[in-house]
Amino acid sequence: MDHTAADPVTAFTTLHTERLILRPLTMADADALHRLVNDWEIARNLARVPFPYPRALADDWITSTHKDLADGTGLHLAITGDEGGVEHLVGVVGLRIDRKGRCGELGYWVGRRYWGHGVAAEAAGKLARWALANLEYLDHLDASVALDNPASMAVLKRIGFRDTGKQAEHQSLAMGKPRPVQLFQAKRSDVARVSLPVAEPEAQTESTKPMLLVAACALIDSDGRVLLARRPEGKAMAGLWEFPGGKVHTGETPEDALIRELKEELGIDVSAACLAPFAFASHAYDDFHLLMPLYLCRRWQGAIIPHEGQTLAWVRPNRISDYNMPKADLPLVPLLRDFLG
C-alpha cells in the first residue's frame, strides 16, 4: 500500500462500537444537537459552547465541522445509538488536530439523559484508539477537564489518559470567565494498555524489568523492497510500522516463532532454512526490556495477505526511515539499508 494514501481524516466515514455509531455530523442532526447541548449542565463544562445556545449556531457549527473534516484539521463526530430501530443523537466526540505539534485535542459531551451509561468512555475511547492507530502524524492526545468535573476525569482515566499534574485556565463562554482545568495526555501505549488484557509482570526491582523476547523478519521481494506492517488499532504501539514477527513463546526457538507468526499474520509458509539471522535490537521500554533478533527472508510460499487488520507496505531500503517505527526498531534501519544498498 502506498505510504502517501489518502489521509484517514479526510477519507473518514464511520466508527462502530458495541452500542454506538460515530459518524460525521449532518444538518439533520442540528435540532437534536441543539436540544441536548442547550443545557446548563452540559454547556458549563464545555469551553467553546455559550449558554443559552442559539438554534442557528447548531447549523453554523455543523457547517464548520465539514470544513475541518475536508481540511484534515478536525474530526467532529455524532455519537448515535439505536432506540427501537431508530437512530438517536446521544452526544458528540471530536478531535482537533495539530499536525505541526503532532498532537490531537480530544473532546466530548453526552446529553444528560444518557449520563451514567458509559457512553462517553465508549465513544471517546474508540476515537482515541482509532486516532493513535491510524494518524501517523500524531504522537499523543491531549485533553482538559474542569476541576469540578470529576466524572469527566474518571472517563479520561478509564480510557487510558494520564493526569499530567498540570493545570491551566480556559475561557468558558458559558460562564463568561476563565475556568481552571486539569490537563491529561495519552500516548499509544496508554490507550493500548486499557484495550488489551495485560499479563501480570514478574516481580522486579527498580533496576530490573521483565525481558520480552520477540523475533522479527525483514521479508525482501525480488525488487529488493522490504515489507513493513502497521500495527492495527487495539495493539500496543498501534499506528507504528514494524518488521513482521512476534513474541517467542515458552519452548519455542526464534525461528519457530517466526514461522508461526508469519503464517498467522500474513498467511505465508517459511522454512527455517530460509531465515538468515541478521542483527538484533535491545531496548528498554517503561515496563519491560525488549530483545529482538531480526532475520532476513527472500523465499516463502503463498500470497502475502494481512490477516490481523494490519496495513502493509513494500518499501525501498533507503525509504524505511520515512516510516514511524517503534524505538527498538530504529537502530536496525541503517544496518538494513547499508546491507541491501
Give your account of this protein's structure.
Helix 4 (119-134) crosses helix 5 (150-158). The protein has an 8-stranded mixed beta sheet with strand order 1-2-3-4-5-6-8-7, with helices on both faces. Strand 1 and strand 2 (20-24) form a beta hairpin. It starts with 14 loop residues before the first strand and ends with a helix. Helix content is 25%, strand content 32%. The chain has helices at residues 30-37, 40-43, 55-71, 119-134, 150-158, 188-195, 254-266, 332-340, and strands spanning 15-16, 20-24, 74-83, 86-98, 103-110, 140-146, 162-172, 177-187, 211-219, 226-230, 241-242, 245-247, 276-284, 289-297, 311-315. With 341 residues, the chain is α+β, with helices and mostly antiparallel strands. The protein contains 8 helices and 15 strands. It is elongated.
Mean pLDDT: 89
The dominant shape is elongated
Report the biggest beta sheet as strand number plus sense, adding barrel if it closes.
Answer: 8 strands, mixed
Strand content: 25-35%
Question: What would you say about this model in short?
Answer:
It contains eight helices and 15 strands.
Please outline the helices and strands.
Blueprint: E1 15-16, E2 20-24, H1 30-37, H2 40-43, H3 55-71, E3 74-83, E4 86-98, E5 103-110, H4 119-134, E6 140-146, H5 150-158, E7 162-172, E8 177-187, H6 188-195, E9 211-219, E10 226-230, E11 241-242, E12 245-247, H7 254-266, E13 276-284, E14 289-297, E15 311-315, H8 332-340
Parallel strand pairs: 5-6, 9-14
Antiparallel strand pairs: 1-2, 2-3, 3-4, 4-5, 6-8, 7-8, 9-12, 10-11, 10-15, 13-14
Helix pairs in contact: 1-3, 4-5, 4-6
